[in-house]
Amino acid sequence: MAYGTTAGVAARIPGVGLNVLSTPDTSQVDTFLAQGAAQIDRKLAGAGYATPVIANALLYPELVALNELYAAAQALRARGLDSVSGAGEMRSDVWMREFAAQLNDMVRSDLTGAGVAQATVTGVRSQRVRGTQLRRIDGYSRNTYPLEPGE
């Protein structure tokens, strides 16, 4: 389930004029939206949140904007409109870095207050971290060299 819409992507790149005859066409933009939503859901699920996020969550508009940013960057790549001369930085690359940075910032924050539920997994136990003892307690850890007089 994509969070964004084709109309939202078209608003980000008005010079492209997305329709059924354009490159990319609306079905390809829908595919870009699905790919972006999959990346968002994967990151959220990896952080322990339930996905997909429900539409009435406070975070949902931010997810829509993030999803449309991803799809707009992919549409620019497909269209080849980034840089005519090849000398400057490509806008799609800037937008993809912005997408990744915003998604990482989002995942690092506590989203439960923004209406995103924690994922509950039943039947799976978390792995315990086993510590190691740094000092032996059986008497052999005592430093015996150099020998003290009288031993």
Beta strand %: under 5%
Mean pLDDT: 81
Total strand count, please?
A: 0
How many H/I helical runs? 4
Describe the structure concisely for a colleague.
The protein is an all-alpha fold. 44% of the residues lie in helices and 0% in strands. The protein has helices at 6-12, 26-46, 60-79, 91-108.
Q: How does this structure look, described?
A:
This protein is mainly α and 151 residues long. The chain has one domain. The chain has four helices and no strands. The chain has helices spanning 6-12, 26-46, 60-79, 91-108. α1 crosses α3 (60-79) and α3 (60-79) packs antiparallel against α4. It is elongated, with a radius of gyration of 26 Å. The mean pLDDT is 81.
Short key terms for the protein model shown above:
4 helices
Structural topology:
Blueprint: H1 6-12, H2 26-46, H3 60-79, H4 91-108
